[in-house]
Amino acid sequence: MRYVYGITSALLVGGTALALVTQSPVGAQVAQNERSEIAKVVPRSGAPESFADLVEQLQPAVVNISTKQEVTLGVRLNPFAGTREPITQEQQGGGSGFLISDDGYIVTNNHVITGGPRGEQVNEVTVTLTNQKEYRAKIVGRDATSDLALLKIDAKGLPFVKFGDSNKARVGDWVVAIGNPLGLGSTVTAGIISAVQRNIGNNGPYDRYIQTDTAINRGNSGGPLFDLEGNVVGITNMLISPVGANIGVNFAIPADAAIPVIEALKAGERPQRGYLGIGIVPVTEDYAAALGLPKDRGEMIQRVEEGEAADKAGLKRGDVVTSVNGKEVTPQQTLSYLIANVKPGTRIPIEIIRDGKAMTLNAVVGTRPTEEELAGSSFDPEEEQTMPEDPKGSADQAVQDELGMAVQTLTPEIAGSIGVQRGTKGLVIAAVGSSSDAGSKGLRRGDVILSINRTPVTTAEGLAKGVADAKKAGRTAVLLEILRRGQPPAFIPIRIDGE
């Protein structure tokens, strides 16, 4: 279970899709939450005398998930061999999940099956059913943006449940959560829906939750939230608490937001989301006063990415977007949320205010990049950055050891943020050791390496190979071609081993 001290944020996908499980053929196993079965245990709407019969029907489809992950904590020098060795540690984690088919597909949260400092996929996932049978699970797919993942175990004839229509969920409805909080297997809690379509203030594209007072804690993550008809209306995801434990303010990903993501993962595809390519801020009271506009209506464009949908549509910095595809932009219905839920390739009207005048522009919505690509677009060359203690791989380790720097592939987004041509190919320096030769010669974060020994380079592996080739040739230095914003490229010799 993810939890936050005070109010923080999560980015979740919105939108709707077709039902995940279709009608079973005659003779096939029936879902545990089939309406006809649930009607026997919950005969009418409202609070039942007991949840026991409902839970007995649903509980077998909820699973416990445990994970193992080998995490690199840093590196150490072996004084006998004169080499650097990684310091690793096995970390264990886990959470909850639920079966959505009788052949072993399981839904859970992405953060349940990730570990390490960069959210790497865990090495091993074990699923335990309520009958205590254990299975090694395969990770079919995971989506960090929506915090959803799909697993598969090799088994048949399993109990399973179906998604319901979370758009029909109402504030005050009874809901039941089943999961594995705090290592206590298959625990049941009940409560009501406190809010629907809850925006917790992150201004993100998927900031929409079902809020419930149903008691959930660490380990409940990925478990189902059922209505009294036995439908999965939400996937337990997060709690807000000043103490890190349940205080009755808990959140679940709505089923209607989860279904299209799960369908895409099951098909081996990446979920597609709309994208304009702009940086935005809400029109707060101060912005409204400066612009002569009503507060809390619309969002101002601070940045327009070259060549993206907004740029092609003619949107400019300083424009205030008030409506998208006929829907008003408000704090509860943010621009990011509205655009993310438009199918890429769709042409939509965008209403703006520019220099006090209302205008309507039309944009063909693009495809939202991955979270990793978006993170790259916010690369700040002025940010203080120390050398990483846990390089991503052997090539990164070699570059750090031999040249005294950390690098990453230059993307068009990073190129734009550091002020070089978006089509530039190379490596951007992420950090430089202060005592390294590179550091003493003035190389710094944000510089671009175009080539090594006059051979173009775009990956850490290519840079490491250039160093290795130089060492084989008996050289003690390599020649790097460096590009810095506002200056022509220059060749700089850097001694090998970073000394």
TrEMBL record:
The EC code for this enzyme is 3.4.21.107
Gene Ontology terms, MF aspect: serine-type endopeptidase activity
Keywords from the UniProt entry = Hydrolase, Periplasm, Protease, Serine protease, Signal, Stress response
- From the UniProt entry, list the residue stretches annotated as the region Disordered: 368-395
Question: Its principal location?
Answer: periplasm
Q: Where is the PDZ domain?
A: 261-338, 384-486
Protein name according to UniProt: Probable periplasmic serine endoprotease DegP-like
Species of provenance: Sphingopyxis indica
Q: What is the lineage of its organism?
A: Bacteria, Pseudomonadati, Pseudomonadota, Alphaproteobacteria, Sphingomonadales
